[in-house]
Design goal:
Length: about 260
C-alpha cells in the first residue's frame, strides 16, 4: 500500500506495506516494500534521487539506510525526509546550504540535518528548507536573499536557525522564496519574498522576519511558488500573491496583496 507521495524534479514515493504479498518494483533489492522505506525515480541532477548517483532512472529503486521515514517532501532540487525519531535527512542540491549539514556541497545520498530533534513537519522551498518542532517553533536553513530564513538577516545559512518570534505554530509551508506558518490561534504569519503581495499584509515588500497576514480563523495553509492559500474554519478559502494565470481563483488576473475569497 502506498501511503505517502511527494514530488521534486525527481519523483519520490515511500511505501508502507503491511502485507507481505504486495509486490515491489523490479529494481528493488527487497521482495517487499517495508514500512517507512523510500523509492525514487526520474530526473537525478544534483543527486536528488538519493541513490548515490546522478544518473536519471526510469524505474524505482530503494534508498538504502532509510527505513523509518514518516514524511518526505521534494523542493526544487533537494529532498527532505522526516524520520520517526524526529530527526531530518536531506539530499540533492546544496548550493545555498539547503541540506542543512554545514556544507554547500551537493549530496547524492541522505545526510542528517545538523542539530535538529523533535521535528514534526518539514517543507522545502527553492534553495531553502523549513522544519517545525514539537514545541511549536520553526527552524530554517539555506538560501536567504529575500529573508526566507526569517531570522532578521539576509545571509544564507548551511545549518538551521530559528525563525524569529514564532511560537504555538501548528503547520508550516514553504513557498518558492518565502515561509508560511499557521499558529494555534488561527493567525497566519509569513516572511521572505513579498514583491507580489505574498506577505498578505497589504504591502508589496519582502521581510526577513515574520509578519502577520490579515487572515484570521485559519485551519490549514498551502503555498505555491509565489502565492498562498488559507482554509478558514467556516469552510471558505482565501488566496493572495501572484495571479498571472488566475491562481488565486478570484475571477481575474494580477497580483493581490490583500486576501481574496
Amino acid at each position: 500500500f502506498i501511503t505517502l507521495f511527494a514530488m521534486s524534479a525527481g519523483c519520490i514515493v515511500p511505501f508502507r506495506t503491511p502485507s507481505t504479498s504486495a509486490a515491489t518494483p523490479a529494481s528493488s533489492t527487497n521482495s517487499v516494500a517495508t514500512p517507512g522505506s523510500l523509492y525514487t525515480w526520474g530526473y537525478n541532477a544534483n543527486g536528488r534521487l538519493g541513490n548515490g548517483s546522478t544518473t536519471n532512472s526510469s524505474v524505482p529503486s530503494q534508498l538504502n539506510g532509510l527505513t523509518t521515514i514518516t514524511t518526505v517532501a521534494g523542493g526544487n532540487n533537494h529532498v527532505l525526509a522526516l524520520l520517526a525519531d524526529g530527526t531530518v535527512r536531506a539530499w540533492g542540491g546544496n548550493t545555498f546550504g539547503q541540506l542543512g549539514n554545514g556544507s554547500t556541497t551537493d549530496s547524492s545520498t541522505p545526510v542528517q540535518v545538523t542539530g535538529l530533534t523533535g521535528i514534526t513537519s518539514v517543507s522545502p522551498g527553492v534553495g531553502f528548507s523549513l522544519a517545525m518542532k514539537s514545541d511549536g517553533t520553526v527552524w530554517a536553513w539555506g538560501h536567504n536573499t529575500n529573508g526566507q530564513l526569517g531570522n532578521g538577516t539576509f545571509s544564507d545559512s548551511a545549518t538551521p536557525v530559528q525563525v524569529n518570534g514564532l511560537s504555538g505554530v501548528t503547520a508550516i509551508a514553504a513557498g518558492g522564496y518565502f515561509g508560511v506558518a499557521l499558529k494555534s490561534d488561527g493567525t497566519v504569519w509569513i516572511w521572505g519574498y513579498g514583491a507580489n503581495g505574498e506577505l498578505g499584509n497589504g504591502a508589496y515588500a519582502s521581510s526577513n522576519v515574520p509578519v502577520q497576514s490579515s487572515v484570521t480563523g485559519a485551519t490549514a495553509i498551502a503555498a505555491g511558488q509565489y502565492h498562498i492559500l488559507a482554509l478558514r474554519g467556516d469552510g471558505t478559502v482565501w488566496a493572495w500573491g501572484y495571479n498571472s494565470v488566475g491562481q488565486l481563483g478570484n475571477g481575474w488576473r494580477g497580483a493581490v496583496r490583500r486576501l481574496r475569497r
